[in-house]
Amino acid sequence: MNRQGFGVATDCIHPDDLSALRTFIEQKVAAAGGEYIAFTGRDSVSGTFLDALGLSPEFMQACQTIYRKGTGTAPPTAPFYQVLRCLSGKTGEKHAFFFHYDSYVITALVPIIMPTEGKRGDLIMLPNTRRIRSSYFRNLVDKILLDNTLTQVALKHLVRSGYLRPTRVRMLPGNVYFFWGYRSVHANEPCDHDKTRATALFHYANPHAGSRLRGMARGTPAA
Ligand SMILES: O=C(O)CCC(=O)C(=O)O
Ligand SMILES: [Fe+2]
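Above: inputs. Below: predicted complex with fe (ii) ion.
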């Protein structure tokens, strides 16, 4: 994660769990008319393998160990923020090439369905382009500098023209990929409209969880 941008745990998801999830996703995408659909939180995937993984003490321990070794500080006790993203159809395209920093230090990415031909929708990243900010305000400045049309169009152009060569992660279902989501500019490439690309994201450790400014900006008291 520090050197090449990401780490990978290979062949650690059981093929039966993957195929049950694929069936779940295919049904949901079909019900959504073959278009983009996302599931946020454990309850939205209850009864599936992702529900169990979100509660797995071993998986949490792995992330906490990475956190401790990577940051040199004690890992917080906080649940995962988990999302299942299913890119499909024309609307899937809108979610491609959106360069961002995650709000959480560690991102564990579990690919479920990945197109194997045509446009695959690889994960692309500029690893470790910033440090963990000590204030939510400084984090907000980074996000504003990145999340605006000018920067987004420029990055997309630079990547497409080959001028900027991001780290490209071709993900294989069965593996789990780890990277410093908070610290790394990243996005996914588009995939073909007639294909589905599904990834489960497990985000861990928000450095600004207790920030008063963040609480005010979100209209909730700091927790
Ligand atoms: O699906 C992917 O490849 C990446 C998604 C992502 O970066 C996110 O949801 O924060
Ligand atoms: Fe992300």
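Residues 100, 102, 107, 181, 186 surround fe (ii) ion (ligand 2) (CB under 6 Å).
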